[in-house]
Amino acid sequence: xMVICDCIKCRKRQSNSKVCVAGVLFPMLCFLxxxxxxxxxxxxxxxxxxxxxxIPGNRAAGDAYHEWKQTMLEEVVVEDAREQHFVFxxxxxxxxxxxxxxxxxxxxxxxxxxxxxxxxxxxxxxEFTHKLSERAPCIQRVFCGAAAGVRKSSEHxxxxxxxxxxxxxxxxxxxxxNRHMYSSIPMKKNNWNSQLNAAFERSGIxxxxxxxxxxxxxxxxxxxxxxxxxxxxxxxxxxxxHASMKEHxxxxxxxxxxxxxxxxxxxxxxxxxxxxxxxxxxxxxxNATIVVLVLNRKGTRRMVHGEGIVRALQKSxxxxxxxxxxxxxxxxxxxxxxxxxxxxxxxxxxHGAQLTNLAFIxxxxxxxxxxPRGYYxxxxxxxxxxxxxxxxxxxxxxxxxxxxxxxxxxxxxxxRRRGTSILVSNVSVVRALPRFIMEFSMCTRALASTPV
Length: 452
What we know:
- About 40% of the residues lie in helices and about 15% in strands.
- It is built from 14 helices and twelve strands.
- It has a six-stranded mixed β-sheet. A six-stranded mixed β-sheet has the order 3-2-7-4-5-6.
- Strand 8, helix 9 (about 305-315) and strand 9 form a beta-alpha-beta unit.
- It is globular and about 95 Å long.
- It starts with a helix and ends with a helix.
- The model is unreliable at about 40-55, about 230-240 and about 245-250 (pLDDT under 50).
């Protein structure tokens, strides 16, 4: 309109035509250049998440996209001094090469006949199979022994799972053999560990005590299977661990991720053995309500405002698309805990042993793990990735994990940090919800188009 008005005034004044044309074209050229610049920025400088064509067509994802764009413009205000703002970031492994498990298969009768390999990728598996065919002509019984350091801490379910999950994955390579796993857990205890052992038994893996004498009636077809982590793993002595931690302050929060499950099929097989007919379909129905699990803890690393986070999520602008489930403390049978995780689409929880049950999530499940100040571990994130999930991490805004973790190698200091409560604010979680929904929706959309 301004250009047209200037043109009319110019003609009425019958001024110089060249001046008139220049006065009209110059602002038009400026507007054109501004438009081209805006288009260039929109197409090339947006992250992939920001491009509308990348957002699935379902209602929840569309609303989440607009809500996410709106939150980017809003300033974060945490008015309560008892709350802290946390930032959720997508987890990326610190090393491009995950730490695969080293495996050694030793003849029970001929201890000099040792087959060493590594499992965790198709190439590793092919190499392992080739070595077995060359040096193990017959395999009748296989015994999976614990790595050093597991036995004494096996009452703790997170550490016992390190041994059990890796043995489960390794023993899947011997489907035709009589498979055994050593364990110090009495079956009669009926806790999480013993129930996991019972599931192994139902799947054809016999549980034997460490005192079991395999050599007493051994044959040339009997083999001992031992598993270890090659980097910063259980086979390090205490002195070596402290030396490593003092030399590299990032020992705990940037050690390479360990793949206890070397193949996603190993995860699905374990889920089948635990959940049976309760297994859900791979992809949820289009526009189905998204189940958000807020999983808290009792005692250390408890989210102080857990119930407030639940109410804030329910009252948020995306509340109509979600069903919020609050579990103040994970307990009950292994099957019950596995079912809670398996039926959730988004899981928000502080770091802790309850996340061992992440082995039972479905593909595309979004997991947001919240860490207390100065205590970070690259421990449960590989469980999420192994099951095909999406892992997020949350840490206090404006603080650095690396600098806060100074001194974590001192046991007393580490225990103190582990024992603190987490003051993550309601607004922190609500602001992250749109991103969680978008990641979940895009993943399930891609999964739906992938052949089974």
